[in-house]
Amino acid sequence: GEGSDGLDDVREGNSGAGGARGRAGFRTDLEALDSLGMQIALSFERGRLSRNGGGRTFDVSSPARIGAAWIELREVFEQELLPRGIAKDWPGFDILSIDGDGQLDRMIELKSSGVAARTQECTWNEWKSAGQDVLRQRFYLYLVGNLRSDLRGQRPFVRTVQDPFGQLRAEVHLQTRVERKVQLAVARFREA
Fold this sequence. Notes:
- About 30% of the residues lie in helices and about 15% in strands.
- It is α+β, with helices and mostly antiparallel strands.
- A 5-stranded mixed sheet has the order 1-2-3-4-5, sandwiched between helices.
- Strand 2 and strand 3 (about 105-110) form a beta hairpin.
- The longest helix has 22 residues, at about 30-50.
- The chain starts with about 30 loop residues before the first helix and ends in a 14-residue tail after the last helix.
- Residues about 1-20 have low confidence and may be disordered.
Protein backbone atom coordinates (compact mmCIF):
# COMPACT_ATOMS: atom_id res chain seq x y z
CA GLY A 1 0.00 0.00 0.00
CA GLU A 2 0.85 3.67 -0.13
CA GLY A 3 1.13 3.87 3.63
CA SER A 4 -0.98 3.57 6.72
CA ASP A 5 -4.10 5.67 7.13
CA GLY A 6 -4.40 4.67 10.77
CA LEU A 7 -6.94 1.94 10.04
CA ASP A 8 -4.64 -0.89 8.99
CA ASP A 9 -3.88 -3.55 11.54
CA VAL A 10 -0.14 -4.20 11.25
CA ARG A 11 -0.09 -7.23 13.52
CA GLU A 12 1.10 -10.42 11.88
CA GLY A 13 -1.63 -12.97 11.42
CA ASN A 14 -4.48 -10.53 10.81
CA SER A 15 -6.89 -11.89 8.24
CA GLY A 16 -8.98 -8.85 7.43
CA ALA A 17 -10.70 -8.16 4.13
CA GLY A 18 -8.26 -8.98 1.37
CA GLY A 19 -5.54 -10.08 3.80
CA ALA A 20 -4.19 -13.58 4.32
CA ARG A 21 -3.15 -15.02 7.65
CA GLY A 22 0.54 -14.38 8.29
CA ARG A 23 1.16 -12.64 4.93
CA ALA A 24 -0.31 -9.20 5.09
CA GLY A 25 -2.38 -6.81 7.10
CA PHE A 26 -5.89 -5.57 6.77
CA ARG A 27 -6.83 -4.31 3.27
CA THR A 28 -3.54 -5.41 1.67
CA ASP A 29 -3.84 -6.04 -2.08
CA LEU A 30 -2.42 -9.58 -2.32
CA GLU A 31 -2.00 -9.41 -6.10
CA ALA A 32 0.14 -6.29 -5.73
CA LEU A 33 2.08 -7.93 -2.88
CA ASP A 34 2.76 -11.04 -4.98
CA SER A 35 3.72 -8.92 -7.99
CA LEU A 36 6.20 -6.90 -5.92
CA GLY A 37 7.61 -10.10 -4.41
CA MET A 38 8.07 -11.55 -7.91
CA GLN A 39 9.85 -8.40 -9.15
CA ILE A 40 12.22 -8.48 -6.17
CA ALA A 41 12.90 -12.22 -6.47
CA LEU A 42 13.54 -12.00 -10.23
CA SER A 43 15.91 -9.07 -9.72
CA PHE A 44 17.71 -10.90 -6.91
CA GLU A 45 18.04 -14.04 -9.04
CA ARG A 46 19.27 -12.13 -12.11
CA GLY A 47 21.94 -10.49 -9.94
CA ARG A 48 23.01 -13.87 -8.55
CA LEU A 49 23.26 -15.35 -12.05
CA SER A 50 25.28 -12.42 -13.41
CA ARG A 51 27.78 -12.75 -10.54
CA ASN A 52 28.09 -16.49 -11.30
CA GLY A 53 28.74 -16.43 -15.04
CA GLY A 54 25.36 -15.50 -16.49
CA GLY A 55 22.09 -17.20 -17.27
CA ARG A 56 18.38 -16.52 -17.72
CA THR A 57 15.52 -16.31 -15.26
CA PHE A 58 11.85 -16.96 -16.11
CA ASP A 59 8.55 -16.38 -14.32
CA VAL A 60 6.81 -19.77 -14.67
CA SER A 61 3.99 -19.06 -12.22
CA SER A 62 1.21 -19.65 -14.76
CA PRO A 63 0.61 -21.57 -18.00
CA ALA A 64 0.42 -18.26 -19.91
CA ARG A 65 3.85 -17.15 -18.67
CA ILE A 66 5.36 -20.55 -19.48
CA GLY A 67 3.77 -20.46 -22.95
CA ALA A 68 5.20 -17.00 -23.63
CA ALA A 69 8.74 -18.28 -22.94
CA TRP A 70 8.29 -21.86 -24.22
CA ILE A 71 10.87 -21.57 -27.00
CA GLU A 72 13.55 -20.82 -24.39
CA LEU A 73 12.18 -23.25 -21.78
CA ARG A 74 11.37 -26.23 -23.98
CA GLU A 75 14.74 -28.00 -23.85
CA VAL A 76 15.04 -27.77 -20.03
CA PHE A 77 11.47 -28.98 -19.56
CA GLU A 78 11.82 -31.86 -22.03
CA GLN A 79 15.24 -33.05 -20.83
CA GLU A 80 15.15 -32.34 -17.09
CA LEU A 81 11.65 -31.72 -15.76
CA LEU A 82 9.00 -33.64 -17.69
CA PRO A 83 10.81 -37.02 -17.38
CA ARG A 84 10.80 -36.53 -13.60
CA GLY A 85 7.09 -35.83 -13.32
CA ILE A 86 7.24 -32.03 -13.22
CA ALA A 87 4.17 -30.78 -15.11
CA LYS A 88 4.57 -28.27 -17.94
CA ASP A 89 1.58 -26.05 -17.11
CA TRP A 90 1.83 -26.07 -13.31
CA PRO A 91 5.39 -27.12 -12.42
CA GLY A 92 5.07 -26.49 -8.67
CA PHE A 93 7.45 -23.50 -8.52
CA ASP A 94 7.32 -19.89 -9.68
CA ILE A 95 10.76 -19.06 -11.09
CA LEU A 96 13.05 -21.14 -13.28
CA SER A 97 16.72 -20.21 -13.68
CA ILE A 98 18.89 -21.52 -16.47
CA ASP A 99 22.67 -21.15 -16.27
CA GLY A 100 24.90 -19.62 -18.95
CA ASP A 101 25.25 -23.03 -20.66
CA GLY A 102 21.46 -23.44 -21.00
CA GLN A 103 21.25 -26.02 -18.20
CA LEU A 104 18.76 -26.11 -15.32
CA ASP A 105 20.09 -24.03 -12.45
CA ARG A 106 17.30 -23.43 -9.91
CA MET A 107 13.60 -24.08 -9.48
CA ILE A 108 12.33 -21.42 -7.09
CA GLU A 109 9.10 -21.39 -5.13
CA LEU A 110 8.37 -17.81 -4.11
CA LYS A 111 6.51 -16.80 -0.98
CA SER A 112 5.87 -13.07 -0.56
CA SER A 113 4.82 -11.48 2.69
CA GLY A 114 3.98 -7.97 3.80
CA VAL A 115 5.60 -8.75 7.14
CA ALA A 116 8.27 -11.17 8.36
CA ALA A 117 5.82 -14.08 8.42
CA ARG A 118 6.76 -17.01 10.66
CA THR A 119 4.76 -19.55 8.68
CA GLN A 120 3.91 -19.99 5.01
CA GLU A 121 1.65 -22.43 3.24
CA CYS A 122 2.50 -24.40 0.14
CA THR A 123 0.31 -26.45 -2.13
CA TRP A 124 0.65 -30.19 -2.52
CA ASN A 125 1.97 -29.63 -6.07
CA GLU A 126 4.72 -27.32 -4.75
CA TRP A 127 5.66 -29.81 -2.02
CA LYS A 128 5.68 -32.69 -4.51
CA SER A 129 8.07 -30.80 -6.80
CA ALA A 130 10.29 -29.82 -3.85
CA GLY A 131 10.59 -33.49 -2.85
CA GLN A 132 11.51 -34.87 -6.29
CA ASP A 133 14.67 -36.86 -5.44
CA VAL A 134 16.89 -36.04 -8.41
CA LEU A 135 16.00 -32.32 -8.44
CA ARG A 136 15.84 -31.54 -4.71
CA GLN A 137 19.24 -29.85 -4.56
CA ARG A 138 18.10 -27.44 -7.30
CA PHE A 139 14.82 -26.57 -5.57
CA TYR A 140 14.85 -23.35 -3.55
CA LEU A 141 12.30 -21.53 -1.45
CA TYR A 142 12.66 -17.75 -1.68
CA LEU A 143 10.95 -15.88 1.14
CA VAL A 144 10.50 -12.19 0.32
CA GLY A 145 9.23 -10.29 3.34
CA ASN A 146 8.60 -6.92 4.96
CA LEU A 147 7.04 -5.61 1.75
CA ARG A 148 4.47 -3.33 3.37
CA SER A 149 5.26 0.37 3.08
CA ASP A 150 3.93 1.13 6.56
CA LEU A 151 6.54 -1.00 8.38
CA ARG A 152 8.77 1.76 9.66
CA GLY A 153 12.40 0.81 10.17
CA GLN A 154 12.04 -2.73 8.79
CA ARG A 155 13.69 -3.31 5.44
CA PRO A 156 12.44 -5.80 2.86
CA PHE A 157 14.48 -9.00 2.67
CA VAL A 158 15.04 -12.08 0.53
CA ARG A 159 15.76 -15.34 2.37
CA THR A 160 16.82 -18.33 0.28
CA VAL A 161 16.37 -21.90 1.47
CA GLN A 162 17.93 -24.72 -0.55
CA ASP A 163 16.09 -28.07 -0.48
CA PRO A 164 13.32 -27.13 1.97
CA PHE A 165 11.86 -30.63 1.61
CA GLY A 166 15.10 -32.27 2.77
CA GLN A 167 15.54 -29.86 5.66
CA LEU A 168 12.05 -30.46 7.00
CA ARG A 169 12.19 -34.18 6.30
CA ALA A 170 15.40 -34.44 8.33
CA GLU A 171 13.77 -32.57 11.20
CA VAL A 172 10.67 -34.75 11.14
CA HIS A 173 12.83 -37.86 11.03
CA LEU A 174 14.74 -36.68 14.10
CA GLN A 175 11.52 -35.94 15.96
CA THR A 176 10.17 -39.38 15.14
CA ARG A 177 13.13 -40.98 16.89
CA VAL A 178 12.94 -38.69 19.89
CA GLU A 179 9.24 -39.11 20.48
CA ARG A 180 8.82 -42.87 20.63
CA LYS A 181 6.06 -43.82 23.01
CA VAL A 182 4.45 -46.96 24.32
CA GLN A 183 0.78 -46.88 25.26
CA LEU A 184 -0.07 -48.89 28.33
CA ALA A 185 -3.56 -50.29 28.76
CA VAL A 186 -3.43 -49.81 32.53
CA ALA A 187 -6.89 -51.31 33.08
CA ARG A 188 -5.52 -54.66 31.90
CA PHE A 189 -2.83 -55.02 34.57
CA ARG A 190 -3.64 -58.06 36.71
CA GLU A 191 -2.04 -56.70 39.87
CA ALA A 192 -1.89 -53.16 41.09
